[in-house]
């Protein structure tokens, strides 16, 4: 990144015209690159230099170091955590790194816990209002019997799950409990407008998250986009119905619009993109008063059916791009790729707005139609944010979840060049949601699929499928993957819901999934907290299998599912002179009579 030269009056003596900046004043993207190459002892010493560097190292330095560190090949002993002194080990950032490392051990051993939360009580309460009486009296099915299609978002303040006409919020404090989403502190429920038991909220996006409130963009089934502010500052112990405040609505699509299908927000540019199912797309900018200002709207070509869209950046400070996933069209003469990428979308939208005001023709956009080896519909899109930039997940990489169960990785900066593919050879269920930077080392991709309650995890470099790039990019060697192995994670039996995993969000130590009837959680922090015993986690173990081996395994929960915990207790107690009773009631000490 080029630094503008300083003026002659501001140059220090003997500078020879060279500009200089203090290290804490460097952009965050440049600091990420510097921190990734420092040994651990130097990074700890750097944080003690000044207040600005201490804040930078504490916020992004430790995490960046851990993500850039190779667990398999790291001969430098100075980069190990064990060499740090006790004084350096008391820093808050280092404590988070230690917790992340212990979470990695849990992910590696697959000792993941699972718990679920049902929507039944919430949906019954929402459909019991007076507004539902005419619908219930029509002779059709009551709204509580219709399934919900939820969407989930995770922010610093907590977890948000939107379904039907409700928004359910778990605060970050309640999620830190041992029981997670099943803790005694019940979630807060918000009714957005009139209470309804029908599916009304199709998409949500977090625009602003503050300690006392959250601003949401809500896409309705009837095509209207709304802004709502959810108060979260008053802690009433959870379980209460809170009142949300509407901040305005808009209906930019001309004529009778279709339902809002997808919303994407780019906080670095304060840019919001909305997509309707009929193919209309609109761009908005968010001002400092949290008000939407229309920028430009258009319709994607060939009357394609829109499924999802995603805003991304090539790098911090670069031009944003917009990716749109559509329904596959196999008609003759149509482009077989269901993926459209608008490069420099903000610059093109400003040009179109100026041309519309001046009465000039609209300029043509810079569009990429990348070759999709799957040639099927695309239901989910994801790319890393500049704030989580790491060598594992570059910001210019786009991941697309397809109808046939594959995940395709593309390089937007190189014209949509095909990079890799991830898939389960034994399961071709559609991919409905994606989450990046999770699992061991924050190097995995989590995919929610059409299989009931399943969550698939692929490590970015190890589990990609070895195949060549498309022909127009040249014949290149096969990718160095190990066969696209990956593994699938199941919730505890019985399954949490008989529906696909429509939404998955997460972080390094835990993953949250949402289906039609329940929201469930996979937690790898059970053995990661200091002073927490494994038996204190009141939840069940999760079943899993590797895609190549197809052998179903089960982690042991508190009650010893799968018999693994009982077998371990047998071995330990045999050494202590205890014997296993034939009646299965436990161990008894002494000689057999």
UniProtKB/TrEMBL annotation:
SMART domains: FBOX. It comes from Jaminaea rosea. Residues 465-476, 562-572 have a biased composition (Basic and acidic residues). This is F-box domain-containing protein. Residues 465-489, 556-593 are annotated as: Disordered. Residues 20-68 form the F-box domain. It comes from the Eukaryota. Pfam families: F-box-like.
